[in-house]
Design goal:
Layout lengths: L1 H11 L2 H30 L4 H27 L14 H24 L8 H30 L3 H18 L1 H9 L6 H46 L15 H9 L2 H32 L5 H29 L1 H22 L4 H36 L7 H12 L1 H18 L27 H25 L7 H13 L11
Subcellular location: Membrane
Keywords: Membrane, Transmembrane, Transmembrane helix
GO cellular component, one term: membrane
Length: about 500
Amino acid sequence: MGRSVWGCWQGVFSTAVLYGSLALFTSILHNVFLLYYVETFVSVYKIDKVSFWVGETVFLIWNSLNDPLFGWLSDRAFLSSPQTGSQITNPEVVLKRLKALSTNGPLFALSFLAFWVAWARPGLQFLLCLCLYDGFLTMVDLHHSALLADLAVSATDRTRLNFHCSVFSALGSFSVFLSYSFWDKEDFYSFRFFCVTLATFSILGFFVVSRLLQHRFQKEVRARQDEALTLKELSVGHAPLTQPEKPVTIGQYIKQLSRHRNFMWFVSMNLVQVFHCHFNNNFFPLFLEHLLSDNISASTGSILLGISYIAPHLNNLYFLTLCQRYGVYQVIRWLFMLKLGLSVVMALAGADHIYLLCIFIASNRVFTEGTCKLLKLVISDLVDEDFVVNRRQQAASALLFGMVALLTKPGQTFAPLIGTWLLCVYTGYDIFEREPVKDSLVSVPDIASGSGTPPLRLGCFYMLVFVPITCALLQLAAWSRFTLHGRKLQGIKTLRQGAQHGHLIDVKAI
């Protein structure tokens, strides 16, 4: 009876829908976490400043190191060259990742709940909660991202998988709007109940969807194992003696990556992209306050904020259709050029065109976040190239995603540091001391324009337009050196499919 129920549900949903739904169970929690965890510990639990910065510093280190660490623990068995009779089939890899998701997904949801109940001293709870939450989030995100490269090789199938992720991520963003109805730092009971409801939904979702996908691939694994057993019986006494090869060490793997030119150019571009995404996140409220607050209503500001959360997911659906027609490389290049063009137009128009400024602030964040959501497709292509160039036994997709995260996450730290420094240089405004600095580049109102623009507003405008211009120029320069597209990409995919012929998944259900 139980098997028939599972079989019935498997027939209803495609692999792409089930894969995409895993993004929903992550995003409904993570969006709420990003919005409220700082205010909860500062305003509700009254954490002291030293404990807060100690926790953030430890979290920064842990956040940077856990991606490659978990990726290495997950994929180190796949790094050695193929050996006769020791192939790990692709369905077995997928099954391993799904088992990891079925365990770490519910644990991720439970670690989310640990933030909203005071169970230790604020400083200790802050540190432990951040590290636990980020550890389980990393495990979920790494295995979910790696499945994109493991479930499909063709650009069409991967685009379809990413399309469903964007749909479900957009649905997950609505938890932010619902949270406003429950958030009250004076009476925390309603918000706790809301978080428990979200976590329960997430736990059930991870359990059910991962089980459905596991049942789907267990049949294929059993079929491959029976086939391998038959071949082994037929070749008894005829198998040649082979010298087992030593597994690749982490040092050898890093050396291989350092020679991977497309990986290095992609990381260079993505470091700037991560910086720009977090720069927009960090300074979006500042731009709204000092550039628009005197000219737009509070409701208009909230609409802009809402658009900035949901529109990137919806916009990505259109970008993915363009990717199918023109290729991911070309679409990302167009987005960089669009970012550069819009920023130049805004710089020439000036800060007094309010409606143009509203459109630019919203579109700048939407297009930047949209670009970030396409980059998983590029990393999946790099997984293919790494597999072919280094003759892997199996694609080390989780490890490569982890190494990309290790080398690009410093952009998260650089964004607020460089942003606050630029603000101080241009305006003399120190965001921490709130006192003017004497040697600022802009120390008087802009009398030439006749508008009496305050220095802080003018400095915010300079940051708003010149940071995207600089980022776009650097990214276009790095992206022009990236060669994994067009015929070369098709050749790599053909070689991977040929090398793993008989070991890849039948993706007809996608």
